[in-house]
Each structure stands twice: as C-alpha cells, then as structure tokens.
C-alpha cells in the first residue's frame, strides 16, 4: 500500500495528520504537483481527479479524496483509537455534518481564493480573479460560524476530536496564504482550539 502525496499541501496534510493520530505508517510517493507530475496520464490513471492525495492498495485499487482515504483506514481498523468519525449515530451524523460544512464553506473557498488570485495553476485551469475575491469573502463570512461552534464545544463536531477538526485545523493553517488573519478579539475560541491542537505531535508533522 502506498500514498501519493506532496508534503506541506493542505490535502496531503489532512491524511498525514489522520494517519499520525491513528499510528498508521504507509509508504509515501512524492508527487511534484507544481511541476505538473500529477497531470500525466500515468497519474490520472491512479487519481480520478488528477489531484493528490491518492492511495494505492497492493491489489492496484486506488482511492482519491482525502476523507475517503481516512474513512477507509477507519473502517479497516475500527478499534484503533482515537475514533475520528464518531461512534453513536448522532455523533457520526455531527462529524459528517461539520466535516462537510468546514470543507465546503471553509477549505473549498480558501482553495478557490488562493488558486484564482495567485494563479499558480494557470497552466492547467482558467483563473478568474473576481471568483477568487468572492471566494475569500465567502470564507470570511463562514469563519464566525466556526468561532461560534468552538465557543460552545471543545471540538468542531462537539465533544470529541474528529476528522472535522483535522479539516478545520488545515483550513486555519492555510488562512495566511489567502491574506486572512484571525485575531484574539474576534476569534478567541478558534485561536485557543488551534493552539491546543498545535501542541499535539500529530498536528505538528507538516
Ligand atoms: N477534495 C480533494 C482536494 C485535493 C486537492 O485539491 N489537492 C491539491 C493539493 S492541496 C492538488 O492536488 N493540486 C494539484 C493541482 O491542482 O493540479 C481532497 O480532499 O483530496
């Protein structure tokens, strides 16, 4: 089994943090995405979207999408702590809900803001600056919702650490790349939560 990834990228970090928390080690293959290694037919045969991360099993089966990869390991090792997808039905629903909320309203908008303004991938996609600015606006309109949730709960999906925390942590780390700063006056809970997770070695890897 091996994972195709690029250290330091938000999406690879989501899987890397998850694996570290679970104590799972697998071989890593570095893909130079800025250099376009992911645009080759060979890589597109591994990853449906041509994006990293992508997991390849020993029988050749491939899985792309960071959360799908994490889910696969959660199902493979259901008793390996910590559980990061929820245990009770309501907990599972809340984890799924918050993971999707943070990904779609936070991370997706942050990616769109970065890609369309910085235009680092203009060799492979149309970059629309106005779209980048709109995405940044939507991102900044979403962040207060995350602050509110963390002012009421220790973790993004409620009481326990989950995949939703990993997505939100990676989002907060990415904010400087889209020139969004969060200060202690407006975001005390989000900053305290981020600082606490930063002390966990699994969140320090990249
Ligand atoms: N929803 C996907 C997003 C994957 C993604 O956007 N990967 C980026 C790195 S963070 C990538 O491969 N970029 C290369 C490109 O756009 O050509 C996931 O969670 O796996």
UniProtKB/TrEMBL annotation:
Keyword field: Transferase
UniProt domain GST N-terminal: residue ranges: 1-81
Pfam family, one: GST_N_2
InterPro entries associated with the record: Glutathione-S-Trfase_C-like, Glutathione-S-Trfase_C_sf, Glutathione_S-Trfase, Glutathione_S-Trfase_N, GST_C, Thioredoxin-like_sf
Domain GST C-terminal residues, every copy: 88-206
Superkingdom assignment: Bacteria
GO molecular function, one term: transferase activity
Name of the protein this chain belongs to: Glutathione S-transferase
Organism: Veronia nyctiphanis
Lineage, opening ranks: Bacteria, Pseudomonadati, Pseudomonadota, Gammaproteobacteria, Vibrionales
